[in-house]
C-alpha cells in the first residue's frame, strides 16, 4: 500500500547495545588520554631519586673533594657537632680518604649546623665548618688543599666535643685543624690559621648550612649523617661504602 504524501519519516531506533558500545569506547579513550598524560608528566618529572639528584646538581656545595671524573660520586650532609657523623668518620674516614686520593670517589660536602643549639657556645658547628672553609678558600695548590682539608676533617671529628657539654674556642679549632693538615704533610699558611682563629668564615658557613638544610629536605632526609648516591639515600651501616666503589 502506498504511503500518503503527509506521512512522516520515522527513523529506526538505534540499538541499545550499540549505544553502550560507543559510550564505552568514548570512556576508554578518555581514560587512555588521561593515563597517557599522567605517564608523560611523570616521565618528564622523573623518579624521586631523579628529582633528588637534580636538586643536588643545581646546588653549590662548600666543599668538593675528589676528581670530577671519579666513577663514584656521593653527597654527604654532616654537622661538625653530630656524634653519628663522628662515628662515620672514625669508621669509614680512612677508606673514604684513600678512595678520593686514588681517583675512585668524589664527594660533595654540605656542612649543616642545626646542632649549634646544643653546644655551650651556641655556634660550634658554624665555627668548625668555618675553619674547614678557610682551608678550602686558601691559596694552597689544589692537591695540597685537598690533603689539608681531608686531614683537618679527620682531626675535627677525632677531637669532637661531647654533644651538649663540650665546646672549643676558635683558637682550639685552629690548632686541631692545623694539626690534622700537618698529619697529611701540609703546613697551613699563617693567614689560614689566623682566619680560623678570627672566625672569619663563621657567618658564611651559617649561610651555607641554611642552604644545605633546605637541600637535605629536598632529598627527603631529616638528619645527619646523610649519604646520597644517584639521588638515593644510603644506609650507613657495616661495609656500606665498598659496594659503591667501582
Automatic annotation (TrEMBL):
Bilayer-crossing regions: 20-41
Domain Thioredoxin-like fold: 63-235
Keywords: Membrane, Transmembrane, Transmembrane helix
Pfam families, per database record: Thioredoxin_4
Name of the molecule in the record: Thioredoxin-like fold domain-containing protein
Amino acid at each position: 500500500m502506498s504511503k500518503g504524501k503527509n506521512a512522516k519519516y520515522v527513523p529506526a531506533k538505534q540499538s541499545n547495545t550499540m549505544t553502550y558500545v560507543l559510550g564505552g569506547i568514548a570512556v576508554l579513550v578518555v581514560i587512555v588520554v588521561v593515563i597517557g598524560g599522567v605517564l608523560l608528566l611523570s616521565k618528564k618529572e622523573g623518579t624521586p631519586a631523579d628529582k633528588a639528584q637534580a636538586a643536588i646538581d643545581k646546588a653549590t656545595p662548600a666543599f668538593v673533594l675528589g676528581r670530577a671524573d671519579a666513577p663514584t660520586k656521593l653527597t654527604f650532609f654532616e654537622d661538625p657537632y653530630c656524634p653519628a657523623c663522628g662515628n662515620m668518620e672514625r669508621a669509614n674516614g680512612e677508606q673514604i680518604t684513600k678512595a678520593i686520593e686514588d681517583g675512585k670517589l668524589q664527594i660533595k660536602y654540605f656542612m649543616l649546623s642545626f646542632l649549634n643549639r646544643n653546644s655551650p657556645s651556641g655556634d660550634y658547628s658554624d665555627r668548625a665548618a668555618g675553619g674547614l672553609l678557610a682551608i678550602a678558600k686558601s691559596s694552597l695548590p689544589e692537591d695540597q688543599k685537598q690533603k689539608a682539608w681531608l686531614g683537618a676533617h679527620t682531626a675535627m671529628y677525632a677531637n669532637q666535643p661531647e654533644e651538649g657539654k663540650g665546646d672549643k674556642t676558635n683558637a682550639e679549632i685552629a690548632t686541631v685543624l692545623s694539626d690534622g693538615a700537618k698529619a697529611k704533610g701540609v703546613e697551613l699558611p699563617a693567614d689560614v690559621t689566623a682566619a680560623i682563629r678570627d672566625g672569619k668564615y663563621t657567618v658564611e658557613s651559617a649561610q651555607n648550612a641554611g642552604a644545605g638544610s633546605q637541600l637535605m629536605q629536598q632529598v627527603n632526609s631529616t638528619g645527619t649523617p646523610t649519604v646520597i648516591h644517584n639521588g638515593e639515600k644510603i644506609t650507613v651501616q657495616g661495609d656500606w661504602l665498598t659496594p659503591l666503589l667501582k
